[in-house]
Amino acid sequence: MFQGILDLPWWGYVVVVLVTTHITIAGVTIYLHRHQAHRALDLHPIASHFFRFWLWFTTGMVTKEWAAIHRKHHAKCETRDDPHSPQIYGIRKLLLEGTELYRAESKNAETMERYGHGTPDDWIERRLYTRHSAAGVTILLLTELALFGPIGATMWAVQMLWIPILAAGIINGVGHYWGYRNFQSVDASKNILPWGILIGGEELHNNHHAYATSAKLSNKWYEFDIGWLYIRILSAFGLANVKKVAPRVRKLSAAKPSCDHELLQAVITHRYDVLQRYAAALKGTWRAELRALRTSAAHGAEEWHKLKGWLTRDSNELPESERVRLSETVRSSRVLATVHSMREELTQIWSRSTASRDQLVRQLDDWCKRAEASGIQALEQFSHRLRCYA
Fold first, then answer.
1. What is the pLDDT of residue 134?
2. Helices and strands of the chain, counted as H and E runs
3. What pLDDT, on the 0 to 100 scale, is given for residue 184?
4. Does 44 lie in the same domain as 181?
5. Structural domains of the chain, count
6. Which class for 309: exposed (0-12), middle (13-18), buried (19 or more C-beta within 10 A)?
7. pLDDT band of 88, cuts 50, 70, 90
8. What is the pTM of this model?
9. Is 85 a residue whose pLDDT tops 80?
C-alpha cells in the first residue's frame, strides 16, 4: 500500500498539522482581521499575498466575504442583524453551526456591497481565489495524500475543522459568552484567556471590541498576544506597518480645577478605562447598599447576583423586565440611585454626537461638581481622579 513520499514518526505528523494550522490562524488574525477588516496595519504586498494564498490553499475563505461579515458583526453587534451572536442564536448553535451562519451571510449581496469595500479585486482574486475558492483545499488534500499517504486525509480533515471550530465556534461563540472583561464595551464580548496563543491573540476578544482598530489585542501587563509578536517581527523586516494601537493611560497629570477641552478629549479617548475604574471605585459602595437591601424578603440570592450585574451595564442593554426591576431597586436607595444615574450620565457625555465641544466640557464639569458634592466618598474620589486624565 502506498505510504507517501515522506515517512515520519507519529509525532512528525502532529507537528506538521500544528505548524500548518498555526500559520492559518496567523493569516486569519493578521491578514483577514487586523489588516483587511479593520485596517489597523498595512502589509507589504509580499506578506499580504502570502497570507491570501495560504488561506485560499488551507481554508478556501474569500477575503471580501470574511471582511464584510466581520465588519457587519461590529456594526450590528448583539442585534438581530449580527451574523453570529450567541446572545441572539444561542451558544449551542454558534459552537455547532457557526460555519453555516457564516456561509448564509456570505450569500447576502447587501452585506457584501455595504461592508466588503477595499478588499482585493485584482486579476488573481477574480479569476482564482474567489471563482475557484474550493480548488485550494482540493490541491491541499492531493498534496498531503502524495506526501504522507492515507494519514494525509486525516491531517487534511483536522486542518479543515480548525478554523470552523476555533474561529466560527470559539471566538464568535465563547468570545461573546464566557470569560472576563477589561472594558465595559456596549456588547457582550469577553476575553477567553489572558494568553492569546492558540487562536493567534483572538482570545483577547473584549480588548478587541473595545478598541477594534488596534493592531495589538493585549492590554494588561499579564496578557500576551502572539499575533502582535508576529506583527512586530514583520515590522522589523519591513513587511508590516502598524497604523493604530489602543490608547493606554500611562500616567495621570495633576488634577485640573475645572474641565477643559483637553480633559474632555482624554476622557473620551480613555472612556473604557474610565468605566472600568468607575466600576472598581464604586464597587464597595454599591455592595454595601445591596447587602442592606438583601435583608429584605423581596431580594433572594438569585436577585442579589442580578443586581450586582445590573449596576455595571447600560440600562439600554437590559431586557425590559430587568430594566423595570432595576428602576424599582435604585429608587429604594438614594446611594444606589446616585451611583447608577451618575454612571449613565457619564456615558452620555461621549455618546452625544450632536452636542458641541463646549457643551460637552460644561456637562463634564457639571458632572464632576455634582459627584464631589454627592456626599458619597468613593464617588468624590473618583471625580478627583477623573480630573487627572491626560
1. 94
2. 18, 4
3. 79
4. yes
5. 2
6. exposed
7. confident
8. 0.85
9. yes
DSSP letter (8 states) at residue 225: E
Q: Which three cell numbers stand for residue 31?
A: 491578514
In the chain the beta strands, taken as DSSP E runs, fall at 41-43, 195-196, 224-225, 240-242
How many Cβ atoms sit within 10 Å of the Cβ of residue 229? 16
Structure-block grid coordinates of residue 308: 450586582
Q: CB pairs under 8 A, 24+ apart, for 71-74?
A: 71/37, 71/115, 72/105, 72/111, 72/114, 72/115, 73/172, 74/209, 74/212
Answer whether residue 302 shows pLDDT above 60.
no
Split at pLDDT 50, 70, 90, the class of 297 is very low
User: Residue 183: which region, alpha, beta or left (left: phi > 0; alpha: psi -120 to 50)?
Assistant: beta
**Closest by Cα among 61, 47, 48 to 106:** 61
Q: How far apart are CA 367 and CA 345, in angstroms?
A: 8
Q: Are 327 and 344 in contact (CB under 8 A)?
A: no
Q: What is the pLDDT of residues 97-113, one digit of tens each?
A: 888 999 999 999 999 99
User: 320-331 and 334-349 helices cross at what angle (nearest 10)?
Assistant: 130
The answer on 123 and 25 residing in a single domain is: yes
Indicate the residue among 207, 242, 277 that finishes a domain.
242
pLDDT tens-digit map of 3-25: 789 889 999 999 999 999 999 99
Within 8 A by CB and 6+ apart from 387, the residues are: 255, 256, 257, 259, 263, 368
Rounded Cα gap, residues 99 and 96, in angstroms:
8
Amino acid at 327: S
- pLDDT for the residue numbered 285: 85
Based on the fold, state whether residues 51 and 175 are members of the same structural domain. yes
| Residue 346 in domain | yes
* C-alpha cell read off for 52: 491570501
Question: Could you give the CA distance from residue 85 to residue 64 in angstroms, rounded to a whole number?
Answer: 20
Phi, psi of 217 (to 5 degrees): -95, -20
My answer on whether 215 and 338 are in the same domain is no
Cα angle 260-265-266, degrees, rounded to a multiple of 5:
100
Query: Average of pLDDT values for 132-149?
Result: 95
Show the cell assigned to 271: 472612556
Q: Are residues 226 and 305 located together in one domain of the fold?
A: no
| Among candidate residues 208, 242, 276, the one where a domain is terminated | 242
Cα-only R_g, the chain: 25
